[in-house]
Amino acid sequence: MTTELAVLAWGCVLALAHVFAAVIAKTMQYGPKWNMGARDEALAPPTPLVGRLARAQANFFETFPVMAAAILVVHAAGLANTWTGWGAVLWLGARAAYLPIYALGIAGLRTLVFLVSLAGLLLVLSPALF
After folding, report:
1. Alpha-carbon separation of residue 14 from 37, 83, 97, 120, 130 (angstroms)
2. Is the backbone of residue 3 left (phi > 0), alpha (psi -120 to 50) or beta?
3. Which of 10, 66, 75, 101 lies 20 to 30 Å (CA to CA) from residue 86?
4. What are the chain's domains?
């Protein structure tokens, strides 16, 4: 398996980490009855942590499909190379760091880490574009 495909698999694990981090924090705020119920009732505003984890999850799911497509295009076209491998690893490392940084509310660093992940994505996608 190529580095890029391994990163895609680990990206799926990271997606699950985002989902569970958000739902665990939300369950801590609203309780297990809310979690196991129909979730029809109106809720109090989320705590800052719940809000940040929900936004981090949304951000991940806005960019993960793009990375998945980039990896699959590069792999299917036989364009994977050292740079695409490094780009994939850079993306995964930055996205893994993004979750706790966002949860802690470190705004400037969060943006920098997002930009690093974007650079990794562009490294993967570039052979398919040029």
Report:
1. 26, 22, 10, 16, 29
2. alpha
3. 101
4. 3-129 (1.20.120.550)
Per residue in 24-78, pLDDT (tens digit) is 999 999 988 888 888 888 889 999 999 999 999 999 999 999 999 999 999 999 9
The residue whose two tokens read 């680990």 is 10
pLDDT value of position 20: 97
Note the pTM of the prediction, 2 decimals. Answer: 0.93
Q: 68-90 as b/e, with b when 16 or more CB fall inside 10 Å?
A: eebbeebbeeeebeeebbebbbb
Q: Is 42 exposed, middle or buried (0-12, 13-18, 19+ CB in 10 A)?
A: exposed
Provide mean pLDDT across the span 76-105: 97
Provide the pLDDT for residue 19.
98
Helix residue ranges per DSSP H, the chain: 3-30, 32-36, 48-76, 82-103, 107-129
Question: Residue 7: CB partners within 8 Å, gap ≥ 6?
Answer: 71, 88, 89, 91, 92
**Token digits for 17?**
């980490």
